[in-house]
Specification:
The chain is an alpha+beta fold and 491 residues long. 34% of the residues lie in helices and 20% in strands. Among the domains are: 208 residues, Histidine kinase-like ATPase, C-terminal domain (Heat Shock Protein 90, 2-Layer Sandwich); 129 residues, Ribosomal Protein S5, domain 2 (2-Layer Sandwich), CATH 3.30.230. The protein has 16 helices and 15 strands. A hairpin with a 2-residue loop joins strand 7 and strand 8. The protein is elongated and about 90 Å long.
């Protein structure tokens, strides 16, 4: 047997090297907020103190930690990337808190409270360098000079992350210039957090809604798809299954700037221009990671400057996305790239040209009754988010829902794919989706009225009802009659 030798890495060298992984102030603070969300926080306060010494504090009302939990949280790589985490845990490598903090400061202190019991610990870079050992300081919270108003925020439970000896931000120099520089940094930070965590701030994430403040001013959400605007177009959705995990890909066309409100236009203008911000927006468990650009499929251009594609995946397939420590870079798997190419083809086609036609902001009316799934194979399933499906489902009892879902599964699994393929190959013109007898126009009109009632059409624009009716496939070959019925319905 070969001899072996234990080689311990130098604590001083490792820590100093990890400072230059590539964090910015924005990505570092975002990494700390990930921990707060994992701790079920609903309130996160970022405090920047300039005097007497520069200091950053991130305070949350999460469940907090006991002493042993705190020490584990401050241990480097405390959890392996392969460990199964809770749905709200946005971590990956077990390094974020430490690497993000040391990228900006030389001293990291964490105070936590659980069930009213306080504990505190500190990593001091200079102390580690001096001894070249992984020496964590255990601190008596009473010895820390923290303003009582901040400690009161975690009286029952919560955590305070403190950065001291900040050496990656220039606070010195002429006071006016320093103030302007800090103001610019904080403005950029505010915009970054409002975008990255917009689903959590809006309350559309799968976890609890959160509130984030920066120096006591609430950070508003910035939705990059401008969904509050009625002219935003929802183009289509695709779903890919990878290792039993669903990846959804949704395309949007932003409204032309002439159809934006002054407030919307100003928000988009301040965050660079439409041309540079076009492209994909990749979300991992509702947290925005990467945005802008088309993964080298096509270049950015004027033709696609209003186009955005939202990609959502969960952390169970992190390894397929080659995520970096900062959670700011990711590479889509091959199956996602293939679907993305198809969607980009639609975006660059005539179907997504910018017009001034009124378009509803409702995603529901743009949905197709069928979804296409691709992974190891391709399958088609009934879209259970389709409004007609949901309306019917909500009218059923629990027992009826069980039977209805069983029926849908039978329909999906018995779709005569081979027969359809054969008929299409022999004589595609004879294959029709629905056969409407001209003598049964009265019955078809009644079907339209029932459809409009289910869609709650009185609440939507008539053009949206027309598009939804066409996409349903019920009125194929009867567009002239459909247009007349729509006009009569709103008369």
């Amino acid at each position: 047997m070969d001899d072996i030798k234990l080689l311990m890495p130098s604590a001083a060298s490792i820590l100093q090297s990890m400072r230059d992984i590539g964090y910015t102030l924005d990505t570092a603070i975002a990494d700390i907020i990930d921990n707060s969300i994992a701790a079920a926080a609903t309130q996160i306060d970022i405090i920047v103190n300039e005097r007497p010494e520069p200091q950053f504090m991130i305070i949350d009302n999460g469940h907090g930690m006991g002493a042993d939990e705190l020490y584990q949280a401050l241990r480097f790589a405390t959890k392996p990337p392969t460990e199964i985490r809770s749905d709200r845990d946005l971590g990956r490598f077990g390094l974020g808190l430490k690497t993000a903090s040391f990228s900006q400061a030389r001293r990291l202190t964490v105070i936590s409270s659980k069930a009213g019991q306080f504990c505190a610990a500190q990593w001091d870079l200079d102390y580690v360098i001096e001894h070249d050992k992984w020496l964590l300081k255990i601190i008596d919270p009473a010895r820390l000079h923290i303003d009582q108003i901040y400690l009161e925020k975690i009286t029952e439970h919560g955590t305070i992350v403190i950065w001291d000896q900040i050496d990656r931000i220039e606070f010195s120099g002429q006071e006016t210039e320093a103030q302007r520089y800090l103001s610019q940094l904080l403005t950029k930070l505010r915009e970054h957090l409002g975008l990255v965590f917009h689903k959590f701030i809006e309350g559309t994430a799968k976890t609890d809604q959160i509130k984030i403040t920066l120096n006591h001013i609430e950070i508003p959400a910035f939705n990059p798809f401008c969904l509050s605007n009625k002219f935003t177009r929802v183009i289509g959705v695709e779903k890919v299954f990878l290792n039993d995990s669903e990846v959804t890909i949704q395309a949007y066309a932003l409204p032309h700037y002439s159809n934006m409100t002054p407030q919307e236009y100003e928000m988009f203008r301040k965050r660079s221009d439409l041309l540079n911000n076009q492209g994909t927006y990749v979300y991992r468990n509702d947290r925005l990671m990467v945005w802008g650009g088309w993964f080298r499929i096509i270049p950015k251009s004027e033709q696609t400057k209003y186009s955005r594609v939202e990609i959502n995946f969960d952390k169970s397939i992190d390894h397929l996305w080659t995520i970096d420590i900062k959670k700011s870079k990711a590479s889509p798997p091959f199956a996602v790239i293939q679907i993305l190419k198809q969607i980009i083809g639609q975006i660059t086609g005539t179907s997504v040209k910018m017009t001034t036609t009124r378009v509803s902001k409702s995603l529901e009316t743009k949905e197709s009754p069928w979804n296409r799934y691709s992974g190891d194979g391709v399958s088609y399933r009934v879209n259970q988010n389709y409004p007609l499906f949901q309306t019917l489902l909500n009218s059923m009892s629990v027992e009826q829902r069980k039977h209805f879902h069983a029926l849908i599964e039978v329909i999906e699994s018995s779709l005569p794919v081979q027969g359809i393929y054969s008929d299409m190959a022999v004589n595609p013109k004879q294959v029709i989706l629905h056969n409407h007898n001209e003598d049964n126009i009265k019955g078809l009109k009644e079907k339209f009225l029932n459809f409009a009632e289910f869609m709650e059409a009185k609440k939507m624009d008539k053009d949206v009802l027309r598009e939804a009716s066409i996409s349903s496939g019920l009125f194929s070959g009867n567009l002239e009659n459909l247009n007349r019925w729509v006009e009569e319905y709103y008369a």
